[in-house]
């Protein structure tokens, strides 16, 4: 059986069913999709308030999209982008904003060193990388501080970290950050729209990936069944839910993020290594905001809608207009400490700040949206943060193997357990395939 | 009502009862004491397998001991101590081992800088200290690396960190480590036996502190009632237990460590700040070992029983002979990564390693114990580690205020919430008094 009807759990269940196993998926929420969720724009078009992009190299999710008969379309990137680093502002095309050449050179050399080191720890087991202990014994902030030397370069790398992890470089282990970058094939693939992880969108919204799989699985997916307890022995599990069924099975796939796995009671209790691990992989924090306008007015001004700033709370913005072209939508993110500050505001204060930032980027027409749609994932009981969990210092070197190692009949999935594209939809799919591969041979 | 019958919860309950409140204490285990626990030596004398020492400056626990009619006695420290730093071994009296003078000078200057900085962050709110963000953005390992310059000095400070936190300097925020040291009044008060936190013991074992309070509280303490859910609104709480009663109350004191508080389901869910905090305060890890001999043979050889080593798994050993003087007992600790390694061994392997280390310190008579008594606190469902929880980088500056701030009818106790002596029995008592003080005025 599978716990969690996010992409990881659904992919696992689907593989298991295809392999001839009898599968049940228990989902705490009254919907499938986990961190993938569609909301509705004025006019009824779906819009993602959770994970939403796919890109080249994400072979597993792209295959899944195709299998499910879904279509992708490119994120709108035509026009000039906006970049603010410190007090300088650049409106530019291509990959590189026109900033102080010293800052650009600093970013270039830092990224070169980051990518080179990330390749060395890109393996499935970053804790075995050369200098793993040293890298895991420091925060990513410490590593960046030694690597970038200009204020602008450091500010840019902070912005990039926040955009990728929804956490600051101070929050996480340098080894975790490097292995994450390595698993995506470098920093550019992570941060680019065209050619990177934000290149493409799914017509109808990414939640359709989960909905499509759930439809295939039919009555095997049970909603509104939050798992509270897993009693286990070598021959099987007994899974208790709050207000739902109690289920017996030969094996259990736990396909929820580490901080939620930590809230399930296991009897007998799990070995110290596994328990310590899940105590040390907190979730990032992000408030995602979609702001809809009667039309994508920025395009008329020759702007792509892509904007980044080291000095605004809304550090990253992209055009998020749906496939049909209307309404015009800008999507922005309050990440890490900006999410902390945002969550302490009232809705009115937060909206005012977001709109102010959009006006700062795109001018006065941004002042009058049709709709403001936000989602604070740290407030969601069954996510408790986004985009994903990260490892704090000294966690991978001490407890890394416990991330994926099965314990008796218990198997661990979820994007955080992926070797490639951990934190992305693709990583979730990878982990689902992996656990199914762990289990199916035992049934034959 | 109070959740958790450790010292924090029991002190809170006792103060509340004295203040005229109607109190119930729900305890998950079938015993009180939390991380205080007595086991039995051959012959029946009690011996602590959990927290066990008290010392000067710990005014709250000392007052409690006196009120309960318990007696203390000094930890045995007479004789020569053993210190191994790298390949050099010193058998010495007084405070300072005879080691390489360069190493001693390095330790001295590092300790001076540590104590000076710790005084600056000793306040109740370390996140407001000067340079708090910078200190919280790095691991304590990074800070120590910049502060100590010799291999011996660094090894010694690692040993001290492990002895104090049951975690390595790589595991925790520098700001957390500094505030912890500051809250104890400096490094010496933390690490010294005579004159420090290991100075005195409680006749009959420290669990008697908890047992004494529980006796006073009588039927108000309900054992075997693990709390699973807390439903709350401004006017009160409804607390659900697994297999025990459901209890309604006006207020709830949650007196369990952060990783266990995270496993209670709150409805409605707690604000993001509080939830993120408890995702980021993992427990230390220690396997505590008491080894009993027919007599304290090391004393005959002029040794105190105190031994420390940067090169052995059993990095810290003290004489733990009970008040009556028999049997002879040595207590040692496998801390942090040594606990990881120890937990992966079989009992026989682990015992063999411990005995080998004791023979290395004290000679061949250590080879033949009467009894070997160990406790791996990371395996305990209702502790999940020891000595206490610590904050990982960027946690105090982002979420520190959520450590103690009440939320509606919910109040937070436990030694980790203490301003002074966080992680010690004294800190637990401080936190119990504090929450009672938060609640009682509202009843008048």
TrEMBL record, chains A, B:
SUPFAM superfamilies: FAD-linked reductases, C-terminal domain, FAD/NAD(P)-binding domain. Residues 7-440 form the Amine oxidase domain. The keyword Transcription regulation does not apply. The keyword Oxidoreductase applies. Its cofactor is FAD. Keywords: Oxidoreductase. Belongs to the flavin monoamine oxidase family. This is Flavin monoamine oxidase family protein.
């Amino acid at each position: 059986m599978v716990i969690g009807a996010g992409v990881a759990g659904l992919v696992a269940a689907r593989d298991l069913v295809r392999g001839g196993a009898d599968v049940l998926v228990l989902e705490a929420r009254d919907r499938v999709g986990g961190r993938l969720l569609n909301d509705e724009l004025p006019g009824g078009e779906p819009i993602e308030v959770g994970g939403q992009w796919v890109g080249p190299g994400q072979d597993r999710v792209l295959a899944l999209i195709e299998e499910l008969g879904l279509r992708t379309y490119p994120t709108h990137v035509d026009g000039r982008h906006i970049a603010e680093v410190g007090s300088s502002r650049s409106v530019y095309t291509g990959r590189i904003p026109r900033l102080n050449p010293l800052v650009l050179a600093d970013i270039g050399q830092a990224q070169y060193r980051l990518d080179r080191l990330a390749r060395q720890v890109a393996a499935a087991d970053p804790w075995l990388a050369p200098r793993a202990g040293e890298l895991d014994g420091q925060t990513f902030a410490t590593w960046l501080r030694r690597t970038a030397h200009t204020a602008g370069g450091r500010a840019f790398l902070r912005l990039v970290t926040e955009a990728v992890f929804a956490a600051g470089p101070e929050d996480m282990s340098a080894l975790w950050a490097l292995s994450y970058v390595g698993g995506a094939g470098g920093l550019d693939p992570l941060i680019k729209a065209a050619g990177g992880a934000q290149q493409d969108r799914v017509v109808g919204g990414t939640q359709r990936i989960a909905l499509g799989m759930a439809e295939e699985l039919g009555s095997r997916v049970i909603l509104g069944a939050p798992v509270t307890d897993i009693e286990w022995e070598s021959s099987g599990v007994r899974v208790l839910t709050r207000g739902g069924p109690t289920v017996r099975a030969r094996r259990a796939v736990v396909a929820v993020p580490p901080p939620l796995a930590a809230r399930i009671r296991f009897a007998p209790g799990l070995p110290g290594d596994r328990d310590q691990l899940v105590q040390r992989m907190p979730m990032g924090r992000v408030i995602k905001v979609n702001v809809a306008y009667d039309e994508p007015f920025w395009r008329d001004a020759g702007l792509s809608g892509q904007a980044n700033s080291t000095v605004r709370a809304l550090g990253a913005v992209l055009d998020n207009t749906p496939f049909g072209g209307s309404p015009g939508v800008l999507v922005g993110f309050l990440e890490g400490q900006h999410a902390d500050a945002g969550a302490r505001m009232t809705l009115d204060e937060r909206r005012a700040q977001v709109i102010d930032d959009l006006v700062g980027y795109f001018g006065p027409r941004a002042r009058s949206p049709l709709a403001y749609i936000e989602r604070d994932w740290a407030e969601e009981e069954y996510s408790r943060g986004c985009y994903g969990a990260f490892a704090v210092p000294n966690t991978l070197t001490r407890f890394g193997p416990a991330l994926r190692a099965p314990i008796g009949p218990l198997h661990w999935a979820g994007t955080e357990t992926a070797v490639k594209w951990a934190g992305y939809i693709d990583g979730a799919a990878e982990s689902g395939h992996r656990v199914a591969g762990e289990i199916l041979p035992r049934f034959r």
